[in-house]
Design brief:
Layout lengths: L1 H21 L18 E9 L6 E8 L16 E6 L14 E5 L9 H10 L6 E4 L21 H16 L9 E6 L1 H12 L6 E5 L8 H12 L23 H5 L13 E6 L9 H24 L4 E4 L17 H18 L4
Helix pairs in contact: 2-8
């Protein structure tokens, strides 16, 4: 009897071990690519997935060029979040290299919003393209001339001499202008054209989505000044002369020198695309209607200067949005308009940039 019990126990143990061996083993979850610090940036938070499909991750860095940015609710003082969307099937160990689109957000926005994630993942679902959303604060994507108590605010240096090489060093990019583009919305549209004009060696294509492009326009100057003073754009606030100096003649030389609309000759040989509505019905959502209609004036000046220079460009002047995208009514900050802008722009990039 005792030996029978022992044999039964032994057989039970064998079957249990066999069932464990036969059971399927869950695959280990693959994390996003780790990042190494460099180029004046210290990685303070390693990449972490923020979407279910594991295409988009965020990471955080500190910069010696913008050590103390103003912050919005949810942001960590002294830290910059970057959101990165990878192409489907990205493999850091494979030989394939991908073009990169740098996407610049507008005023009072964040790089890592759900809207930015949704627009980017939708427009790049079938595109072999890396998209990077860097933090832009209330920067106007410029090296400030009078930052005052905020301390060093060299945003152009941060993005062009730190973020770009950090991405190239840590991801499988095509690290030259044949595989690099830049675009942005509103303040980010200004920044995209501004950066492309300053560094045409870096970018093969530039896009502006409802950008305010003419700093010689008094209304556009008022927008920049409001950004500097408004706590809704970040705290602490700053002064109207912090970014470009005094906005009045004869002290406004930097405003004039940094205005994208008047310096389009630097874009020669680059792909250029401008997207703008007219605000639609001004009695519906009047703030965003008026802002878009005023931004359109700065785009018309830019388009006229591009034409005068003989520089080819795409101009999607879509009016009230009725023929542009369902749900787009030509306002300044509408997701359907921005989704259509990005969808169209990604199509242009895939026809122009080098890619797998």
């Amino acid at each position: 009897m005792e030996s029978h019990v022992k044999r039964t126990a032994a057989l039970t143990a064998v079957f249990a071990a066999a069932s464990v061996l036969a059971a399927p083993v869950a695959a280990a979850e693959t994390g996003p690519p780790p990042f190494t610090s460099g180029f004046g940036l210290t990685v303070t938070e390693q990449p972490a997935w923020v979407d279910e499909t594991h295409r988009t991750f965020t990471l955080a860095v500190r910069s010696d060029q913008v050590p103390t940015p103003s912050t919005l609710p949810g942001q960590t003082p002294g830290q910059h979040v970057l959101m990165v969307t990878l192409p489907a099937g990205y493999d850091g160990a494979a030989a394939a290299r991908y073009p990169v689109l740098y996407s610049l957000h507008g005023n009072a926005d964040l790089p890592n919003t759900q809207r930015n994630l949704d627009i980017t993942e939708s427009s790049t679902r079938s595109a072999p393209l890396i998209t990077v959303h860097p933090n832009g604060g209330r920067s106007w994507y410029s090296n400030w001339v009078n930052p005052g108590a905020l301390g060093l605010q060299n945003w152009e240096n941060f993005h062009l001499t730190q973020v770009i090489p950090l991405i190239d060093a840590n991801l499988r990019t095509i690290p030259d202008r044949t595989g690099r583009a830049i675009a942005g919305h509103s303040m980010g549209g200004f920044g995209a054209v501004h950066y492309a004009e300053h560094r045409p060696d870096l970018f093969g294509y530039v896009g502006s989505f409802s950008g305010g492009l003419d700093l010689q326009n008094s209304e556009q100057r008022a927008v920049v000044a409001e950004t500097a003073l408004d706590p809704a754009s970040g705290t602490p606030t700053t002064s109207v002369d912090a970014i470009f100096g005094p906005p009045i003649w004869p002290f406004d030389g930097i405003w004039n020198a940094q205005s994208p609309a008047q310096h389009v000759s630097a874009l020669r040989g680059m792909g250029v695309a401008l997207y703008i509505g007219n605000g639609g019905d001004l009695t519906v959502d009047p703030l965003h209607a008026v802002v878009e209609s005023r931004a359109r004036e700065t785009n018309l000046v830019t388009a006229a200067n591009l034409t005068a220079e003989g520089i080819p460009f795409t101009f999607a002047d879509y009016g009230d949005g009725s023929t542009w995208a369902p749900g787009c009514t030509g306002k300044h900050n509408q997701q359907p308009c921005l989704q259509a802008d990005m969808d169209h722009f990604v199509g242009l990039l895939m026809a122009a940039l080098r890619h797998p």
